[in-house]
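Posting for a labmate who doesn't have an account.
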Amino acid sequence: MQLIKKLMEKRNFILVLFKVCLVSLSFLFAFLLCYDLHAVAADWDLFGRLFLPVLLVKLLVFWRMGLGHGWWRYVSIPDVVTLFFANLVASAIVLLYVVFIHGIEGVPRSLILLDAMICFLLSCGVRLLTRAWRENYLPMVLDARCDGKRVLIVGAGSAGQMIVKEMRVNPSLSLRVVGFVDDDPDKQGQRFQGVPVLGAHKELAAICRDNSVEEVIIAIPSATGKELKRIVESCSSAKIKFRTLPSVGELIDGTVTVQQIKDVDLEDLLGREPISLDVEGIKNYLRGKTILVTGAAGSIGSEICRQIARFGPALIILFDKAETPLFFIERELRERFPDIPLIPLVGDLRHRTHTVSVFDDHQPEVVFHAAAYKHVPLMEVNPEAAANNNVRGTKILADAAHAHGVRNFVMISTDKAVNPTNVMGASKRAAELYVQNLARFSKTHFVTVRFGNVLGSNGSVIPIFREQIKKGGPLTVTHKDVIRYFMTIPEASQLVLQAGSMGRGGEIFLLDMGEPVKIVKLAEEMIRLSGLKPYEDIDIIFTGLRPGEKLFEELLLAGEGIKATNHEKIMVARAEHCDWNVLNLRIEELYEATCLLDTEKILDILQEIVPEFRCQRNTAGVQPKKAAMVSAPRSSNLPASTGQGIYSLHTV
């Protein structure tokens, strides 16, 4: 160790000495080749007169062209190109010396050319061997019994090859690549980075067994959910641990390292294509604007705040009644976007005075309305809460936005608002109708964005399944045939911003939810991803549909129709117009019924506002509440009625 330490202290001197030896040997070999290894005394005299000038010129040129360092372990194609030009320049200077100073007589014409070629080849060879040794390539080749976890890489493309490089650079990872698998027929039987392609994906289980593979790394960042699922099933059948690289959208600057490898998650198997956003269109209506986000501490609301912050708004107002989650999202945003001003407001939309004061004090120009009660079974037994929050809260917020001349108002809705069988869905549909019809009288661009379930949102099925798996099961599924649409929270939030930039007033935008997912299949996949077997290690039980639930959700009402937009993942539905006076009267009556806790009247009025609402009375054994003997205050802050009665459907 002391010897190595002393050598490292003299490292620069040793490198200079080594270069002197390399240049000297190159010139010597070139000289001997010129004379066919039979040089006479006169020839050696020529060698002595040329040796020192050649040595000094080459060392000086190499130093001036940045080849004086010793980081040979990182040699790459650009370094080889630099070496080539350095030798070319040095040989040209030597040639000029021979012609104008030394004299060309007696100097073999091939000497300078051979010297340049041999010096270039020796320089590259030494660097290549150094890198091969430092990256653990030669030890692996020379010793097939090299220690380390035996790893198989799925995908012999650029990502897979970079993983191999990273493992060689970091031998401390104790990973040894035994081969690739790849479906490309042109790659079969080939070697990349010295590692063989052992077969196709369908042979993965057999390859793992024959080569004693301990772990599989899936290095196909562009793989679809279906492709990834097929590979995962092969790994599961072989009882091999598997991990994957992040998706293309998650890779920063195209760099791939072993440190970025992660366990395969459900989001990978349900993976959707990366979203293409009209960044300029979104930037035009968000940059430099004051933006209000209601429900800012929720799953969707908080992600909307993160996405908005990327576009440089003048101010983001975070409005939510949940104090602790609001604290956390404010802290996160201040850390990630220190230059974006934030105002966190703890408040309830149903408090008209407070809500209006937010508009008076801060004059927001864009509003994203994500505040809502969303849990279907919970709202079935609390219909007064759903009606008051989802309908009246939306009305108060929308009225304030209209009165203060807000430019854009985007309401987040749900597929459960379509032909609702539950109070939550009916309340959201009523809110949709109010916002759509208010748009007819307002300069504010009121739009609604309707989508299904989002992966990993608070209280959604995936966090519940994770918790049940952690406890050892069983996983509870309501019905073996129940299906749902899913998208990721960032995807939904980005498309909400995109839809907001496209709206002109009154539209309902529908997001492309992709293929529906059977919940029981989702449960089985989550068990497999945990390294367990469904129905053996962890059971799945069926509990029956909960109050208000459907087997499947819809995104479109009969007669709404859809039209394509200039974004492939966003469609627009035709708006439904109704009598403005009647709608306001019914919403006011609904508010009175919620104040009186009159469940039956709440359900009756919701059915009047939303005729397609298939109400389920007395769900879960809950008896309808009778009206309390209290008076409900009336309030009206509405645009004037047009007096035009019921409107027929028309295309927005």
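Reply:
Got it, the structure tokens are right above this. Residues 138-145, 248-258, 619-623, 626-652 have pLDDT under 50 and may be disordered.
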